[in-house]
Amino acid sequence: MKISDNFVCGLVFVLLFIFSFQYLSLLIKVPFSLLFVPYRQVNMFESKSAVLKKNRDFFKGEKYVGYISDVDSEKVFLQSDSIFDFFSAQYAIVPSILVNDTEEKYVIGIFYGKDFEQKNMKLLKKLDNRTYIFEGTK
Amino acid sequence: MIGFLGFLYSVFTALFFGMINKEKEFRWFFAIPLGFGFCSVLYFLFLLTGICNINIYKIFEFLLIIGLGFVIFTNKKYHNLQFKLPEKISLPLACANLLALMIFLKFYINSPLGNWDGFRMWNTKAEFMFRDITLWKNMFLQPHFLSHNDYPLFVPSSIARIWQYAGSDNSVFNAIFCMLFTFGIIYFLYFAVKYFKNNKLAMLVTLILMLAPAFLVKGAAQCADIPLAYFILSSIVAMFLYFEKKQSSFLVLSTVFAGFCGWVKNEGLMFFAIFLMVLTAYFLIKKYYKQIGIIFLSALPCVILIGIFKAICKTPNDLIQGFFVLKSYTHLFQPHYYLMIIKTFVHMFIERFAILFVSIVLMLKGFSVPVKIKTPLILSGTIFILTCGGYFMTYVLSPHDLDWLLTYSLDRIILHVLPLFLFLYALCLKIGQEDTEN
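Output (structure tokens, whole complex):
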């Protein structure tokens, strides 16, 4: 039995339609989101880095900036939320380089609780409820 | 508005640089990787000079465009700059394109700054190359290995250059840049298959790629994977054109694209090496020594560029370091590494690339390879198999936790070679030929 091209094309179209059916609603959802949803503001990286980005001039001229958080320094790169926080801060303060210690002139602190009060660091600026700039030990 | 005009200017100038290739059929498709590749190198070299004023770069680039324009419009062989649009884009292709665009935009809306890799590595590096051009080398001082300081700079340099013209680091520009590569490669595949085979087959294969969510997600992720796939496909298509037209310029173009792969990602270096090895071996067997010379002369600037970059970044590659320091070569004798890779591949393929199973239907009509493309097909098939083998061994020899590495990278690795696979696969199929029942 010979198989025609049209049969193969039809079969491919049907299968692709079945596979893509779940995405059809995007034809309405996506234009709506683009027009009416503040998708950039609610993005995790954007929201984490926005406040530091606004204050990046604070670190002008500093090659290295320290980092402290309510995660122990040796565990900063072991927990996904902590890694997100660290690299969001790094993104925001470019061209300065973020290092995971407090032996710099300025130290960025990301604290979700009140732990920073126990760190005995001199607070220079509170940027929002979780982002702080401390004086480092340099 | 001015920012968007600046963005448009940066894109059109890049495409203009890319038009220096001679192929009429694929001129604009080659122009995307070639133009952005050239501009990224130009921007990188400018930063290397240490000149603090970005306007000097802009003036220099403008003068280059004037010079190139003069060459193009005074040289007869470059006169024909038309772009061949298909006479009629079929309805299924148009509908699929609309849906693919929505899927792409959905993932852009979810991650406007790129996915985790796009944000952490590529966009952060682009910030370094944009924010303060006197301190851009700071990017190589980032202390943690997750920054991957040794990754090549095609994407960061291209994005930073676009931002310089646009005057801001708005992520919309990144998204459009990524869209250009994502949809560019889709239509490039369409035109390439149509050129070497036929329209019907081209449409079917393109539809499968176009509606693969994993492909569109990574396209919107603002990573270097889809651009790498584009460079790989361009290199192979240019090689096919060389064997068809016997013009050395296509061999040069093919090698330059392969060289650029090493400027896009470290994985591209492996493709570059395999490409050189396979073509050199072929020309040695055939005793075409002139072609070997052409390949190596074309590859030389890319090798120098990558050498300069590696010398500047001064960051050892984690894989090479792991091989010697952590003795990861011992993995070679541990079968569970091989099994885990195969198991994850099968699992991931079913989970994220299930749509590719549709391509099996295309086999119903059987296979047929035109004689005129047999040689490049064998060569590119060899390159494809060796590249896949290279990726496999990269996983085996990786010093990192294999389960973690496979989970977060295997889908991207598959995407590097997916358009190439579909292209080669389509060339072997029988659909749409005159000798079949249509």
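Chain B has a mean pLDDT of 90.
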